[in-house]
Every structure is written in C-alpha cells, then in structure tokens.
C-alpha cells in the first residue's frame, strides 16, 4: 500500500509531477519571515523529545487540541511531555483535511523518515523513535536548518532587543540569521500604563530620554540604524488594519505627552498618533533601503479570560474584518508623494481582501524595480491548500504570478520547514493543471523560470540576500 506521504503527494497530474521534481524540489529556502528564537539557534538547542520540538509555543496545535476537547494542562499546562504528545496523537485523526494533518506527516517523513500515520495506536513508537533521534547531534537546531537547505533566516525582533544572539551568530554560524524590525508596541496606545512601560524600555535600549514626540522618533531611528548595522534589511508590522488621519506635529506631540502621563486618549487621537508613527517608520525603511512587510487583519486576543491567564500568541486569535482600501491608499500615497515608499509586501488574513490588496499593490508599482509593492503569500489562517490556491488564482488574474516571491514560514517551530515543500507542491499542481487545460503553454522557457522563481529565486532577487 502506498504511504500517505509519497514522492508525488499533492501532485495530481503528469505536468505537476515533472514541474515539482525538475524545478522546485531541490531549491534552497529563503526564510524571510519567521518567529524562530535566535537564542536557540546560537545555543544549538537539542530537543529532548518531539513534544519539545512540536508543541512548545505552537498555538496552531493548541487550538486543534482544545477544539478536540483536550484539557489545557495537556496543551500549555503541567502534564508530562509524553502525556502531551499522546493527547496530540489523539487529536491528529480529527485534523484530517486540515493543513496540520499534512504538515504533521510531512515533518515525520522529512526529518525522521517515518511514513506511519500518527494516531493513538502508533504514538508510543513514533514518540520513542523521534525522541531518540532528536537527542543526536544531527537533530540540533543548526543541523535541522542545514538539513533543510535554508540560506538565510530573518527573525522577528522588537526595537528594544539588544540582538546579542544575532551578533554571536555572525561569527559562529555560516547561515545568516538577520533581525527584522517589529515596532508594533510603540503604537499600542489602548493601555496607557503598558505604553509608558514600553517607552521606558525603549529609553533604556537607546540610552536617551524620550519626553516628547521628536525624541521618540529619534529613539526609533537610532534603534533602526542599530538593526541596519546588525544586517537587518526588513521591517514587519503586525497591524489590525492600516491607519490614516491628517494631523499636525503639534497635535502628535500633545497626544504623545498625554500618553506618557498615563492618560487615555480618544479614538480620533489614537488614529492620528498611529498614522504619524507608522509614516515615520516607513520613512526610515525607505532611507535605509529596506523592505517593509504589513501583516494586517488579525483579530487578536478574543478570549479575554484566557488572554489574561496566558498572554498573547497562545491561540485566541481569528480572522478580522475586511480592510479599508481608502485608508491603505491614502497611507501609501502619502509616502509615494514624497518619494519615500520603499519595497512593500502586503499580507491580508481575510480572503475577501485578496483582490483589493493585489490591485492596490499595482497602484504603486512605478517601474523602479520588479513588483516594488506586492501581495504577499497566503498567511496564517489562509496558509493551507484552499487558501493558497485562491491566492494563486487571484494573483494570476490580477497581478504577476511570475514575480511572486513565494512562501513565508511564519513559524516558531524548527520543524516547520516542510511547509515550503507543501507550498511548492501546491504551486506545481496548480500550474500543472493550468498547463493541461491549455491555459499556460507547455514550454520549458516559460515554466522553468516560473516555478524556480516562485520556489526560491524571486525572493533571493527581491531581498538581495
């Protein structure tokens, strides 16, 4: 009987099979957006078992386990690692059709050469075999990265981070691990006390007093410059939506000083402040020739009770409302009008925004570079078969599929790199179907750069790594 994960997994036609194995399968990985720990990479962490490697910090799996009726102690609680793994194994059969089912079995196959289906009946044997392998040097974090042919890793880092592990990695690891500037905390004005605490942290990181808005911008620019000196060339902004309001410098200075006093501000003032800060950050990105990424639309921390207990990024987020195209247009126009719009990638989490985002990106492509502004990969809840296929279809119809920079890992797990294989197989299957329908010519000079580009080369060229 053919194993579930086989050489032509997800490849449903002859052309797809040829495209994948000939042009995509062996391409390296440019991991330009992830949440891996640079400390773990520097320390070359050795996982003791598959629970540590799979379930620590993985809110995708936690959500599935909770939905399947698993008690929280087996997700984030004090149950033993073996008990947690057994509960995950009980959940896996219920994830059939979900990308977690595919990812789970791809990871077992690619890292551990295990093609058995994970279930309660196979869990003990799989746990013992994988745990034994994970304790060997061939399965340290650095070895895993090398095994998957990763060429560069861009982590996600707060402006206050000292980047000590990035600095140490420069001289101790041959694969570049670069910081990405993620300044979301500086526009989180909803809790004035938390905001004040963050500004104090920013003061300590930069070594300068921040008592007014001008000083805030100077402090952010100082940290931005530090990231640049450390090899950073990307920023990332995880926003609920794009902001735009007209404002004056005097207004923003007043609003900022109010926040420093711990005073709540109006929704109108919050919109003005967030617009002003985001514009300044984007100007810094342009000044230093960076690429900026906008991940927008997530509705975060919905379960107030569980958020209070566990904090952010623990599995209580969902798809938010559609984006306001007027605000996006005005925001990007403000930068473009002053020739301060750098390379920009737009990611949406609501699939209803696909067509709007693709056509919005096209408004700001001025020929200065290929796809200067572009629609990023299907992200988070859309990072699955139907979401990716819709993204490819929409991008093909309204943008330039040939220039698409491809998959983002967007993961905290060192075992998540087979998601690139999952993506590449789906791309090859989609293009293969188009070829066999007669919608794309069966010409190597057309198909080779298309598949190699989406799999790897477009990202390498776009970012300049």
Task: Explain how this protein is built.
With 465 residues, the chain is an alpha/beta fold. The protein folds into two domains: 14-44 and 151-463, Metal-dependent hydrolases (TIM Barrel), CATH 3.20.20.140; 46-139, uronate isomerase, domain 2, chain A, CATH 1.10.2020.10. Helix content is 49%, strand content 8%. It contains 19 helices and ten strands. The strands form three sheets. A five-stranded parallel beta sheet has the order 4-5-6-9-10, covered by helices on one side. A three-stranded parallel beta sheet has the order 1-2-3. Helix 9 links the parallel strand 2 (150-154) and strand 3 (177-178). The longest helix is centred in the middle third of the chain and has 21 residues, at 267-287. The protein is globular.
Identify the CATH class of the largest domain: Alpha Beta
Specify the helix fraction band.
40-55%
Query: In DSSP terms, counting alpha (H) and pi (I) runs of 4 or more, how many helices?
Result: 19
Gap from first CA to last CA = 43 Å
What is the 3D form?
globular
For the secondary structure, the number of strands is: 10
Total tally of structural domains: 2
Question: Could you give the order of the helices and strands?
Answer: HEHHHHHHHEHEEHHEHHEEHEHEHEHHH
Instruction: State which percent range the strand residues make up.
Output: 5-15%
Report the CATH superfamily of the largest domain.
Metal-dependent hydrolases
List unreliable stretches of 5+ residues: none
If classified by CATH, what would the architecture of the largest domain be?
Alpha-Beta Barrel
Spatial strand sequence of the major β-sheet: 4-5-6-9-10
Mean pLDDT: 97
Q: Label the structural class.
A: alpha/beta
Largest sheet: 5 strands, parallel
Radius of gyration: 23 Å
What is the third-level CATH name, the topology of the largest domain? TIM Barrel
